[in-house]
Each structure stands twice: as C-alpha cells, then as structure tokens.
Amino acid sequence: MIIHNIEEGEYIEDKEALEGLLNLRLQEESIEKHKAIVQVVADDYYSWNKLKDYLLLNPSDFRSQLKVCENALQGNPKSYQPWYHRKFMMENFKEQREKYLGREDFLTKLLLDSDPRNFHCWSYRMFFLKTKTGRDVFNYSYLHHHPDSEDPLTIIYTDPMDPTSWEYFYLWRERKRIRHGMYIRRFRNRLEILLDKPFCGELSFESGGTRKTMAFELHTRIVVIDESIRTSERWKVVINGEEMRFIPEEESFRFVREILEEEPECYEALLVLLDYTEEEAERIAIIERIASLDPIRRGYYDTLKENFYCVYVPEIEGTPIE
C-alpha cells in the first residue's frame, strides 16, 4: 500500500490498514469486497475494473459507486483511479448522471479550494462542465462569443500548454480592468489612460497635488501623459465633468508560478509572469527563458525588458476591487 509522504510503518494505523486489506483480499469474491478494497487502496485498478464491469450490467448501482469514489478520494484526493472511474460513470450513464451534476460542481470546488494543484480534479471538473450542449472551452470562437461565461483559471489548469486558454485569460483580464469605463497603465516614463469607448472633449488628470488638463477635438480611446506630471498611488481623472478616482489593481498571479512548477517550459505562463514582474534582473531572466523557447522572436522579447507597467483601476464605493 502506498501512502504519500509517510514512511512505511511510521504509524500504527498503517499496520492496521494493511491487516484490514489482507483480510479483505481473503474474502469470497463479491462486488462489496471490491468496493471496500478501493476505499482502502484508491489506486487498486483491478478492483476498479471489477466495479466498472458490474456497473455496466447493473446501472442501478450508480449512486452507490459515486459514494465509493468519494470515500476513496477522502483518503487520497490526488489518486488517478477514483477520478478516472468517476469520469467513466459520467460518460457512460448520461441519464443517471443528470441529477448529480450539481453535486459534482460542489465536490470539485470544495477539493480545489483545499488544494488548487489537484490537477486530476481540474481535469475532471473541465470534463463534466463540458457536458453542456455546444460548449467547447478550448475553442476560441466559443470563448469569444461567450465572454465571462467561463473561469479562465479552470481552463488554464486543465491544459496549461493550450494557447487558447491563455488568450481567453488576456481577454477576461482586459474586460475586468475596463469594466467601469477606463483604467490606467503606469510605465516608467509615461501614463496611458485606456477607455472602453472613444471620447472627445476635456480630460483632467490629478496626482500628488498636480493637475493637468487636455482637450481633444478628435475621438480617442487612449490618452498618453508624459513623465512631467508628478504621480502617486491615488489618482483622479475627470472626463467632461465626470470624476473617477483610481487605486492600484490588486491581482494575484500565484497561479502562474504554480503552473510553471509543473510545466517549466510553458511559454504562455512565462509571458504572463513577465507582466507581473517589475524588478529588471528578474525580467531579463524570464525573457531569456522565453527566448530559449522561441529564439526567432528574441529581438521582440528584448524590447520588453523596460516595458513593465502597473495597472490602476477605478475605486468604486461599496465595490471591492478584485
């Protein structure tokens, strides 16, 4: 019996579990015997295969075997066999599965909240979410026409090497930033105010006691302010008399590092990590890793060394900034 991160014989419970398993194997052949075995040893593929064969002949055992899977996952939530068996059940018993899909949603969310690096769970979650007719989360056209309908991190964790998932992440992030009409990018030597709709008229920018006013006769969606204005962490923009205050964006990118721990050559993850890395030496190191994966575009990647920017989003009263 394999128990992860525990030396054999370290606990008395190990010996008791082993004795219980040996007693189970000595019992007469029965489906209950194999149900009990997989709840002790979640990776026993022989007993899981016995359960599959039995379920194909006895669909009424569907609910019981779902419970067996859950019990097996309680002891080892990262074991492949219980997830594979559960997927087999959902694929082959479409009528029986319908009333349990809500439970699958709850179960996978619960386990992923506990351990977001449970990749078998991510894979299974994506499988059962795709049971909706016409839903294809790795099809860019589907994602483009269903904005905000999917969780980008769920898609990324399922297949981090698929560029479609990262393209959707960029779109999702941009929509989130501009959902209140505008946001600000602060580069080393300039600011850019990005607007969701073209505007013309008067724009005032205030920061650190300094005010700068500009007039635009032609419609624009990007306003560039040079470094001559003094900047701080809290800014105010007034467009044609409408005032909006800005604060730094709070966004976690821990998931990118987790992906790179599992897939160190994930090109898209490295590009996203570069977005959130300000220190110059770290940026150069990341760019070297990216260029080693895509040497043809090294010249372009070198231009990104000093292209870091911070993001500032509107401070909406009563609405927390995500």
Automatic annotation (TrEMBL):
Keywords: Prenyltransferase, Repeat, Transferase. GO terms for molecular function: protein prenyltransferase activity. One of its GO terms (cellular component) is cytoplasm. Pfam families: PPTA. Gene3D superfamilies: Protein prenylyltransferase (1.25.40.120). The keyword DNA repair does not apply. Belongs to the protein prenyltransferase subunit alpha family. This is Protein prenyltransferase subunit alpha. The lineage of its organism: Eukaryota, Fungi, Fungi incertae sedis, Microsporidia, Unikaryonidae.
